[in-house]
Amino acid sequence: MALAVAFATALTVLLSACSSAPSALPPAVPAGADRANASVVGGVPNLAVPILSIEPWTAVSPTGRVIRTPAFRLFTTMPPGVTLARLPLFMESALSAYRSTYATLLAPPLALDTFLLASRPQWMKLTAQMFPDEAEGFLNISRGGFTLNARALLYDLGTRDTLALIGHEGWHQFTQQTFIDPLPIWLEEGIATHMEGYRWDTANPTRPVFTPWTNLERFDQLRRALELGRLFSLLDLLASSPQDLILRNSSSTTGTAITSEAARDPQAALTYYAQVWALAHFLNEGQNGQYRDKLAALIYDAAQGRLVDSIRRTSGERAATAYATNRRGAALFGMYFNANLDAAQRQYTAFIERITRLGGRDLIVAGRSPV
After folding, report:
1. d(CA 347, CA 328)
2. What pLDDT was estimated at residue 142?
3. Under 8 Å between Cβ of 369 and 213
4. Phi and psi at residue 147, in whole multiples of 5°?
5. What are phi and psi of 68, to 5 degrees?
6. Taking Cα atoms as reference points, which of 190, 177, 213, 211 lies closest to residue 295?
7. What is the pLDDT of residue 18?
8. pTM here?
């Protein structure tokens, strides 16, 4: 606790040392570019926080700041406190997890821009400013925010949920900037939900440790859907997206063609996220690790720009074009993991039943694998 207080106090001093200046969105800079002394910022020793500089940013609020770390620019109106104090190290630690958890991946070439607003009205204002053509759709998001073109626009949900949101959306920022080919939606979202899971290092309570199983929200939703018989089939999961399900269960009549009971559930989008969370775990740990190397290969192929070419060679130009357009379907799953989708369905269902069995929740709380 003492370390956390010291951490927060140091960042408070840094923020108060900044003077006001005209609003500006700084140009993109290479990740790691040192625009200030990395050892001392604002006269305060920078021992634990990887802060390179702090500058005024008044696009939304006169008290806004841009906090530069080696790989991020954090544009924020958050007041000094625990959330803001923990963000720089949390974001840099998350990037390390993105680059190493499932495959060895390159660092982003440019600093990643994350916008964290203190309130939803501020977030709405900035969304309209930055993305006027898309703002109408984005403003229907009920909680948290979104990522587009490697920029995350988010608002505060309280410390625990905000950091989980940063971990999730940071994965989208990372892949949008560094991957040549996109991942399938189900895997992109599955890994993003893994990055929501973290705990604090017992030896250093300001340093996060990313633990993909530490996610009670996804686990509880998964168990609920299983008990109610509202799980998506594997085929439906591979063919859908959370946006489809949100649209289907809103006033709009547009949306996925899925007609299963799961898709009619008002919590269908939450079930989707819970299932892709479980699916990514299944591919990493299920069947005694049978699919783990293939999971790493798929991620690496997407990062290197070999994924669409693989589809083209295996299934033809039409299939490659379809994937590049909508990033869905079972063909890619069959190429990398199991062409027998019925067999894969049985394996995946057994995996869900196994991790949600009695005692599984206790292991999730502890951040341990229930496999």
Report:
1. 21
2. 85
3. yes
4. -130, 130
5. -100, 130
6. 190
7. 37
8. 0.87
CA distance 54 to 74: 9
The number of angstroms, rounded, from the C-alpha of 201 to the middle of its chain's C-alpha atoms is 21
* Whole-number Å distance between alpha carbons of 46 and 69: 11
pLDDT value at residue 298: 97
CA distance 170 to 91: 8
Domain parsing of the chain, residue ranges: 2-180, 216-365
Angle made by CA atoms 169, 174, 177, in degrees to the nearest 5 = 125
Token digits for 185?
């939606």
Q: What are the tens digits of pLDDT across the range 68-109? A: 999 999 999 999 999 999 999 999 999 999 999 999 999 999
Burial class of residue 45 in the structure, from the number of CB atoms within 10 Å of its CB (0-12 exposed, 13-18 middle, 19+ buried): exposed
The number of beta carbons lying within 10 Å of the beta carbon of residue 50 is 16
Q: Write out residues in the chain with pLDDT < 70, as ranges.
A: 1-26, 32-49, 247-263
**Amino acid symbol at 218:** R
Owner of token pair 């702090």:
54
Token digits for 68?
A: 């530069």
Tokens at residue 280, please?
């990514």
Residue by residue, what is the 3-state secondary structure of the chain? CHHHHHHHHHHHHHHHCCCCCCCCCCCCCECCCCCCCCCEECCEECCCCCCCEEEECCCCCCCCEEEECCCEEEEECCCCCHHHHHHHHHHHHHHHHHHHCCCCCCCCCECEEEEEECCHHHHHHHHHHHCCCCHHHHCCCCCCEEEECCEEEEECCCHHHHHHHHHHHHHHHHHHHHCCCCCCHHHHHHHHHHCCCEEEECCEEEEEEECCCCCHHHHHHHHHHHHHCCCCCHHHHHHCCHHHHHHHCCCCCCCCCCCCHHHHCCCHHHHHHHHHHHHHHHHHHHHHHCCHHHHHHHHHHHHHCCHHHHHHHHHCHHHHHHHHHHCCCCHHHHHHCCCCHHHHHHHHHHHHHHHCCCCHHHHHHCCCCCC
The residue count for the chain: 371
pLDDT tens digit sequence for 114-132: 999 999 999 999 999 999 9
Strand pairing partners for 117? 155
Question: CA angle, corner 359, sides to 358 and 361, nearest 5?
Answer: 105
Q: With 0-12 CB in 10 A as exposed, 13-18 as middle and 19+ as buried, what is 26?
A: middle
What is the distance between the alpha carbons of residues 194 and 212, in angstroms, rounded to a whole number? 4
